[in-house]
């Protein structure tokens, strides 16, 4: 599904709201939004990154989770360029059946993997 400009903005807004609900989380950027805590990145909103046509969340996952997730649903999950080898996954937001509770879990896990320990415990 190719999301139009209004749908892309809605996806961006929803992801920004989800990420900024975490302690001390900040966002920067426009088309590609970087989510960070104390200057450590825990996620990205990617909109047609490198012309791939996808709208996606890119975030860190626990060691060993990347390959099984991609194998489980390769339409929804992908290994992002550059960050994939560092344990990051891409999660499509432009498909018709996005489960926002699941997206919030991915964001929360990534945040807890990246954030300072004291902040990570606040996000549980």
Protein topology:
Blueprint lengths: L4 H16 L4 E4 L4 E5 L2 E8 L7 E6 L5 H7 L4 E2 L9 E5 L7 H15 L2 H6 L2
Antiparallel strand pairs: 1-2, 2-3, 3-4, 4-6, 5-6
List keywords for this structure.
Aspartate Aminotransferase, domain 1; 124 residues; alpha+beta; 6 strands
Polypeptide structure, described:
The structure is a single chain. The chain is α+β, with helices and mostly antiparallel strands and 124 residues long. It has a single domain (5-122), classed as Aspartate Aminotransferase, domain 1, CATH 3.90.1150.30. It has helices at 5-20, 66-72, 100-114, 117-122; strands spanning 25-28, 33-37, 40-47, 55-60, 77-78, 88-92. Strands 1-2-3-4-6-5 form a six-stranded antiparallel beta sheet, covered by helices on one side. Strand 1 and strand 2 (33-37) form a beta hairpin. The radius of gyration is 14 Å and the shape is globular. The model has no long low-confidence stretch (mean pLDDT 93).
């Amino acid at each position: 599904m190719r999301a139009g400009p209004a749908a892309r903005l809605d996806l961006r807004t929803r992801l920004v709201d989800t990420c900024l609900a975490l302690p001390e989380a900040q966002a920067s950027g426009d088309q590609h939004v970087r989510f960070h805590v104390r200057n450590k990145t825990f996620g990205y909103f990617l909109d047609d990154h490198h012309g791939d046509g996808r709208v996606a969340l890119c975030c860190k996952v626990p060691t060993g989770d990347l390959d099984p997730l991609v194998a489980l649903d390769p339409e929804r999950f992908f290994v992002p360029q550059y960050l994939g080898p560092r344990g990051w996954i891409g999660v499509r937001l432009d498909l018709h059946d996005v489960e926002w509770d699941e997206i919030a879990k991915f964001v929360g896990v990534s945040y807890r993997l990246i954030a300072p320990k004291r902040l990570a415990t606040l996000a549980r």
